[in-house]
Amino acid sequence: MAKVSVYNIEGNQVGEMELNDAIFGVEVNEHLVHMAVVNHLAAKRQGTQSARNRSEVSGGGKKPWRQKGTGHARQGSTRAPQWTGGGVVFAPKPRNYEFKINKKERRLALKSVLTSKVNENKFIVLDSFNMDEIKTKKFQAVMNNLKVTKALVVLNEKNDNVFLSARNIPTVKTALTNTINVYDILKYDTVVVTKDAVDTIQEVYA
Question: How far is residue 155's CA from residue 205's CA, in Å, rounded to a whole number?
Answer without folding.
Answer: 16
